[in-house]
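HUMAN:
Just now I want nothing more than another pair of eyes on a protein record. I would be glad if you read both lines and explained how they fit together. I have put the entry right below:
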Amino acid sequence: MLTHRQARFRDDFLSPWRQRFYYLKSLPMGLLSGIKMIQLDEAISVSEVPMRWGNKNPFNSMYFAVQSMAAELSTAAPVLMALKGSDADIALIIVELKAEFVKKAQSKVTFSCVDFDKITNAVAQLKCTGDIAMVTARTTGRDVDDNEVANFYFTWSFKRRS
């Protein structure tokens, strides 16, 4: 069950206007590429990125960096939501990224991450100042025909500061 702070974060993050403002302020390439967060709850986090002229590479498919941004967003949103459930000051950083490209992405790609419980458990391990925890969140990208196009694995590291 989400806390009040987590539910408010989720609702704010899913608001189209607040999402665009966040991108404008903190993630301008997200705004330019058209990335959207479309679902965020305890069960699943879903982001999508359209296939458009600015997102394609010379091989007529979506550039891997654009896919990486959308994939990261689908794991970052549940990470941030999990942190809203803690009163501690926690630093976070991605320490490893692994990507598997299964098929050319030639249409809109939707990334889904179902690791919120795993992320929440890692954050809950941080009991004392200096404690460190890591979690690898997996997200799968699918095209409009529901074909798997990519899998990303982001290893997030958390450190309790106070």
Q: What stands out?
A: Residues 134 and 157 are 4 Å apart (CA to CA). The radius of gyration is 16 Å. The mean pLDDT is 96.
